[in-house]
Design brief:
Blueprint: H1 5-10, E1 18-21, E2 25-29, E3 39-43, H2 55-76, E4 80-84, E5 100-105, H3 123-136
Antiparallel strand pairs: 1-2, 2-3, 3-5, 4-5
The structure holds adenosine monophosphate and zinc ion.
Zinc ion (ZN) is lined by residues 1, 4, 6-7, 46, 97.
Length: 139
């Protein structure tokens, strides 16, 4: 897609530090890493969000992402990794070409997800929320 920075990376029109590439996906270093070695995996075909990515491509992204996470642990001595995908501006998506972050993590790396834990009022609210979601779920 024209004017998409990640489509330009795939086309070789702007530089990137490539880690992996195959027929469906490409992985490269994030230029502003949470920790050194932070990697992005993108589908070669442009998709703005994650829900339209075909199953074989999405599966490849997850599989390769996990294997890259293992490589990050072995190569750079990390303890673990986060797989993160922001879908939508309110979710923190800045580049509108879907991408999976592989964020290498160390026990003492000083980075914390700002994760809150709300609670439901009662069982009825839980059941109601579940039913609303199931009614709209299209696989
Ligand atoms: P997100 O907030 O999930 O959309 O993340 C976008 C990510 O893309 C950020 O972590 C940026 O640092 C990264 N990024 C933006 N431009 C480039 C680029 N040219 N090469 C590598 N990473 C990039
Ligand atoms: Zn694109």
């Amino acid at each position: 897609m024209e004017n998409c920075i990640f489509c330009k990376i795939i086309a070789g029109k702007i530089p990137s530090t490539k880690i992996y590439e195959d027929d469906l996906i490409m992985a490269f270093l994030d230029i502003a890493p949470i920790n050194p070695g932070h990697i992005l995996i993108i589908p070669k075909e442009h998709h703005t969000g994650s829900s339209t990515i075909p199953e074989d491509v999405a599966g490849r992204m997850f599989r390769v992402g996990s294997r890259i996470g293992v490589a990050l642990k072995r190569a750079l001595d990390y303890d673990g990794f986060n797989l993160h995908l922001a879908d939508g501006t309110c979710a923190g998506q800045v580049v509108m070409h879907a991408h999976l972050h592989i964020v290498p993590r160390g026990a003492e790396d000083g980075f914390h997800w700002n994760w809150r834990q709300l609670s439901y009022a009662d069982d009825a609210e839980i059941t109601d929320k579940a039913q609303q979601i199931i009614a709209k779920l299209k696989i």
